[in-house]
Amino acid sequence: WEPDYDNRAERIYVASTLLKEKPYQPLYTYEYSIGGFTVAGCMLEVATGKTFEQLCKELLFEPLQMDGCGFGPTTTDSSLPPLAPWGHLSDPFGYLNLPILPGLTSNIGSALVPDGGIKCNLDSWQNYLVAHMTKDATFLPAEQWEHIHTPIVGGFYGFGWFVYNDPTAGTVLTHGGTDGHNFANCMVIPRFQVGANFGYNNGMGGIQGIASDRLVEWILAHMAGEKNWDLINSVGEALKIPK
pLDDT (tens digit, 9 = 90+) per residue, 174-230? Predict the structure, then answer.
């Protein structure tokens, strides 16, 4: 994660290694691949002659005014008090939490940026969700918004979103991800013009993941009004939140 390091050679190596194996999942059936985004990023680099990081800045961050986004660990500064949240490893019960000392090795390898090396502050992340919520016509034409919000595999996944259609809430878009010691999740309900970002400095496994689900459930209850249980339950089922 040294500044201005060109990781394209490593990205080609990772992508070519992954592509040596034949796909084992039948076409149009669902199997989440954490390496798939790195392969796609590598393809973009070969096609354009620009780095994935350059393309993100030019085609995403700048148009949506996502000024607080970058690449790499949340911070490489290990001074105390912390300048930014430190990630943590945890046991399944959330009892023992081990902080990850910030530095140039406190995240996945930089070649894997498309799969989990992008960082954003909450304002920038909000701009991204608002663009999806409103289907911002100054950023993408309507047919492209429709395309990326439509499932292509398994009836519920496509282009980085889990997509659920509910009779009450309409389309619900959600996606979460972790590098093992940080976790981020987001949710967009365009019909109600509602979105939420969730960020944790922990991998959120085990009981902490259950606590996260309960937090989402609480937010839904207050968003909809506590008496509107039909909406709360329908969205909760769409997001697979246990009752």
Answer: 988 888 888 888 889 888 888 888 888 888 777 888 888 787 777 766 665 555 556
pTM: 0.85
pLDDT in tens, 91-116: 888 788 899 999 888 888 889 999 88
CA distance 110 to 24: 27
Residue type for 220, please? L
Task: Name the residue among 202, 198, 200, 183 with its Cα closest to residue 92.
Answer: 202
Alpha carbons 164 and 189: distance in angstroms, whole number: 10
Q: CA-to-CA distance for 114 and 51, rounded, in angstroms? A: 11
Q: How far is 44 from 53, CA to CA, in rounded Å?
A: 11
Q: How many residues does the chain have?
A: 243
The amino acid at residue 19 is L
Q: State the pairing for strand pair 97-99/161-166.
A: unpaired
Angle in degrees, CA 115, 120, 124, rounded to 5 = 125
Which three-class secondary structure state does DSSP give residue 158? strand
Distance separating alpha carbons of residues 36 and 183, to the nearest angstrom: 19
